Prior knowledge:
The complex is a heterotrimer of chains A (383), B (376) and C (307). Chain A is built from 13 helices and 15 strands. Chain A is an alpha/beta fold. Chain A has two domains: 16-141 and 278-351, 3-Layer(aba) Sandwich (Rossmann fold); 143-270 and 363-381, Response regulator (Rossmann fold), CATH 3.40.50.2300. In chain A, helix 3 packs parallel to helix 4 and helix 12 (306-325) crosses helix 13. Chain A is globular, with a radius of gyration of 21 Å. The two termini of chain B are 24 Å apart. In chain B, helix 2 (40-62) packs parallel to helix 8, helix 3 runs antiparallel to helix 5 and helix 3 (72-87) runs parallel beside helix 6. Chain B contains 14 helices and six strands. Chain C has a single domain (2-123, 142-293), classed as ABC transporter involved in vitamin B12 uptake, BtuC (Orthogonal Bundle), CATH 1.10.3470. Chain C has twelve helices and four strands. Chain C is globular, with a radius of gyration of 20 Å. Chains in contact: A-B, A-C, B-C. At the B-C interface, helix 6, helix 12 and helix 14 of B face helix 4, helix 9 and helix 12 of C.
Amino acid sequence: MKKLLLAVLCLALLIPACVLADGTVKIGVFEPASGDSGAGGKQEILGMQYANKECPTVEIGGQTYNVELVYADNGSSTDKAPSAAQQLVSSGVSVVLGSYGSGVSIAGSKYFEEAKIPAIGATCTNPQVTAGNSHYFRICFLDPFQGTVMATYAYKELGAKVAYVLAELGNDYDVGLAHYFQETFEALGGQVISDTFPTGTSDFTSYLTNAAMYSADVFFCPVSIAYSTQIIEQAAGQNVTFPILGGDTLDSNVVVNAARGKNVNITISTFYQEGANPTFEEGFKAWLNSDSEALTNNGGNDMISAVSVMGYDAYYTAIEALKAAGSTEGAAVMAALPSVTLNGVSGQITFDATGDAVRNSAFIKSVDTTTGDWKFIAEQTVD
Amino acid sequence: MSNTTQKKTLSKEQILSAVIVLVFYVAVFIAEQTIPSTSMLFTVLKKGATYALVAVSMNLLNGFTGIFSLGQAGFMLIGAYVYAIFTIPLAQRASVYQYYNGGIVQTTLPVFIAMILAGLVAAFFAFLIGLPVLRLKSDYLAVATLGFAEIIRAVFQWDKIGPLTNGSNMLRLFPTFNDFNIRNASGEVTIYLSTLVPLLISGVCIALIVLLINSTFGRALRAIKDDEIAAEAMGIRLSSHKQLAFCISSFFTGVGGAMLAMYQTTVQAKSFTTAMTYEILLIVVIGGIGSVTGSCISSFLFVACSEWWLRFLDQKHMIGNFEVPLLRNGFRLVVFSVIIMIVVLFFRQGIMGTRELPDLFRKRPTDRKKGRGIKA
Amino acid sequence: MWNTVFPYLLSGISVGGQYALIAIGYTMVYGILRLINFAHGDVFMVAGILMVYISASGLPLFISIPLVLLLTSLLGYLIERIAYKPLRQAPRMSVMISAIGVSYTLQNLVLYITGGLNQLYPTIPWISGSVTIGSATTKVVTVFTPFLTIALVVGLVQLINHTKIGMAMRAVSKDFETSQLMGININRVISVTFVIGSFLAGVGSLLYFSNYTTVIQTSGAMPGLKAFVAAVFGGIGSIPGAVIGAFIIGIAENIIKGLDIILFRAGLIAKPLGLATFSDAFTFALLIIILAVKPTGLFGEKTTDKV
Lengths: 383, 376, 307
């Protein structure tokens, strides 16, 4: 046993760190494929995969490189994120895309920083992802903005005076968004009651009862898809009267499916409104329908989630950065990223000093429970 | 219990074992200077060192004292939090404790002092919980300690103590293993120590545990494990011995928690679940309940398999046009659990049984129950 | 006041009934083998996953439900045969570790099959509908659960008290060796115990997941642990004890989720304290208290060597 062990250890020492094959540039996909955010992560990956299909090569410094996507599943959990991040680092990626979920992005951040690999967040909206570092970039809007949008919408458009806010304990995305919602809503003159639930909860009936007891006018739950479907289901079971509001995570056909045919009112804020770019949508849907695995990962139908669009734009941002850098070195890409601009499907992308995209509009839409589609409500801008 | 006749001088086998350990450390040092620091090898060694320490402390209870405790995740959580809370640089506190105005702790301790404090706080909690719980027997004790870990997790997430623990949010930006690297003025790393130092910390702690196991106190613990009533008749005070063993084990588990924090670079109460305790337990079982060497070896094997060697099982592979069946996300864990079940059912002795490293060099397995253990 | 507490009470009774069905499995197995079957919560979860896949295959409910119950019982039987029987002579700790291993294996297997994504539980007509009672609107299954639970428990108690196999079970749990000497086929008794326990967990999963409609590999862990605590609370080995313990725990945890508002309305606190955080932790605090104060639980047999 000892000899075997020694042999194994020697072998381990000999395995060289990954050598980059000539003519291939690797882009890391740091996304959850399992766990509470797995469904959303998979949809975000779809956007990247489609973009990769559309644009499989990139010209860097006069040479044509094949782009290879390297996947690492961060399991939607902050304790699995480090090893997933290290897996990407050790496979020699030039730039990382992701992740869906702010907590895992923060948890993986330091590993990319130490390896001098830049990361481009597609939909992680918590300010802490990019704050205080120079390697993390992001192409979407931020929680303070999104929280403000939803709070303003709830207070001004829906006329709500009391809001019940529910977040998952220890989920940076939920807690952050809930915090900024509360800040704005209270500043406007409303009253906020906030509650939290432990990870793995499936019984939300008592939280819904709480909201009813406080006579809440809106129920704001910016939670993972996994929990939002349960909340919708149980809210329908209890015949709640208040509308359910959510953040960008709820923009998924999984949520629409859960709400179809039920007497619930679900309104969310998101990055993209279906119909804004018909050419992209046609191509994307055709690809989804031609690939059964992609269709399954998209939740069984070809409805486009905003996160897929963001994944698509993140991929092209990375491609632009590689071109601008003229090198596959992570450090060079990092240096090139701040000045990259892209006219993406989701809008114009330019980075500010912290590495966040300059964005000032969000879409508000709600579920049409009879047809099972999203219904556009408003485009909200905040200065 | 015939250890009383043990000689004071080191035997040949022990010297040989010490040499192996030394060679291991030298090899790690050389590897670290030569192999790119992004290699998975170092990830495995760092995490392995952490798990080895926790597994050995669990073994001290389960294998040597016969206390079946499942509270490891709770004590690791305490250790990780204490370490993180006291080492986040003052300048970063405002950003970490963003919802709590920078938190109430406004002092920063040196890394090693914070680690010891992490252990002490964990031991203190162990003392408190030990009073009611250690009176229970085997499975009741297991479930009570497991429940304790769950309670700790909930308490640390409570919003009202947020100024101390940052609520349920992440603690981050504290010194990590990579801060052990020695850098020159321009920030370039000159000597890599980020793997060697955690291995040394863990090694020193494990050596202390081994010394303890081989002391009079350790022999008393084994007597308790073998037969409580007989041990009591021999004049061993059950409750104080168990309590002390529980506190010592928790101390080292707390230090292990601090190391885990350094490895992960972020700490969040949410991730210290029962599943973590089960992982440690399975490491101990695979290594052999009652063998320090076994726990160490199996920690590294377990981490290497789950983080590195079996990773390919999670990815699709093509041989020509043929797609290898079954391989997709999660298959690694299925293979892994099947291996574990096989060990549990058919190789109950684990890798080492109750043997230690020096025992491997003895010509014939002697009927002595334990040799003088040594860290691996 | 009553209107404030009632909705929480209703949720609590419902979830308590579901815990009770799981807790019976724990208590029976413990009574006979002195084993905490850590995998039992995962059997419950697998029953949920089976239902998802079987009904996705298009079978009508009157076939799929019995099929799920049958397969769940079979799973319980197989787990005992494969993972526990070979260890019958081994120390108790080994068997418990084996149980933890089985739990780990089942979870990973389900993770692999489902891809780690939440599965939507099929709607069972009638029990998934809504009903309004007093100040609460809830699903029919919530109201229906406690009655079904009690009916099943009464049936089970009849089985244990008035059939031959029931008598054998009682004998084995009293004295393992002696009953073997008396010619009781121990293995058969143990198998039957596991089958009954798994069957009830299967029924519990039907009710539980009809109420809380997503299943993922970790869905069984928390309900399993809570049901176990319920079994200890009621006095492990005692079926009525497990049932009462389960109801108490179910009600307590839901009251805690609403404790802020209950205290607020009663004028005891001025602003919410966020006590809902402790809904899970409370169960375990209860466990430690009961073990410290009355280790045999509410209705446990008074033997000294067990605890």
